[in-house]
Structure formats: structure tokens, C-alpha cells
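In this section we walk through a basic example: taking a raw amino acid sequence and producing a predicted 3D structure, encoded as C-alpha cells. The instruction is simple. Fold the sequence below.
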Amino acid sequence: MEADQSPTPSRRPLKTRSHRWAQVLASGLVKMRVSPNAISVAGIGIALLGGTILWSTGRGWLPNGLVLFLGATCVQLRLLCNMLDGLVAVEGGLKSKAGDLFNELPDRLEDLFLLVGAGYASGSVELGWLCTALALLTAYVRALGGWLGQPQDFCGPGAKPHRMFFLTVGCLAGIFHPMALRWSLWLIALVTLVTVVRRTVRLYRQLP
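The resulting C-alpha cell sequence is shown next.
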């Protein structure tokens, strides 16, 4: 019999899962038999919309302040989908065989859409791609720990919730200062790089 090659099961710790409003919302989705995979796909759509909105900054389609506000809103809605798919899958008992696939791949696509879109909005698309590459690397190191038989490490300071917090703040601050979003992306790149190094060192120390 072949050994189990799946990553060590692990779940990102989120305080918001225990909030009453989150439990009520997830319970309603379970009652409607909304699958967690559908919620994950919705998260991709929201992130794509948010990235497209941010990409449109300066193109005259909408006022830049409104563009940045809508972009920040999509960032938070993406996080809401990320939380609800887990709640519906685990607490709601609707987890499917493809659940792990729908839990991981959408996150990577959502980071891509939002961070690259923010790069366009900030006037530095290269910076958006840098943030995306580092975000992918943090996820890779975390998953690698699972493949090596260790608990997956969700430590920061540049984990997904942290990155999206800084991106949300950058979008909202960008309404008032044109350089705020670019500064936020530089901060995301820095803390994400620190996270890659930190997770790698912690994984090395855990190996037998």
C-alpha cells in the first residue's frame, strides 16, 4: 500500500470564525445547501472584479477615489468568502473530496488578481507582481512543511490576512494620498519576504 502523500491537515487560525455573525451567516449558507466549493469560486470572481477595478485606476471609467474604495471592498469580500468556505465545509459538514483543491488554488488566484491590480493602481505593476511572487512563496513554504510531515505554519507578519489588511488600508489611504497604495505594496513585499524567511527557518528547525 502506498504511503499517504497528502499534506498534514492544518487550518488557518481565525478569530472571526467564532464571531456570532459569522456563525449565523455560515449556518444560513448550510441550510441553503450552498457548497463550500461554490463559495471558493465566488471568492475568485470577487477578486477578479476587484483586480479589474483597481487596474482601471486613472482610466477615467470611475473616479479614482471610488475605484480604490471598491477595490478595498472586494479585498474584504474575498476574505469573507475565504472564511465562509471553511466554516461551511468543516462546521457545516459539507466538505467534499475536492475541498483541499478549492481551498488552496483560489487563494493563489485571488492574491494574483488583487495584488497585480493594486500594482497597476499604484503606478508600479512590477511591484504588484513582486508582492504576488512573494505571496506564492509563503504559501509554498507552508505547504512544503505539510508535505514533509510537519504542521503547516501560518505565521506572519505577512500571512494572507496581514497582506490583505495592508492592501485594504493602502487602498483606503490612497483615496487621500496618491502614494499611499504604493507604500502599502512595498510594506506587503517587505513583511511577506520576512515571512518566507521566518517560515523556512522554523520548518528547518522542526525537521528531525
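Looking at the output, two observations stand out. The two ends are 25 Å apart (CA to CA). The helical segments are 20-31, 36-55, 64-91, 99-122, 125-147, 160-174, 180-206. In the next section we compare this with other chains.
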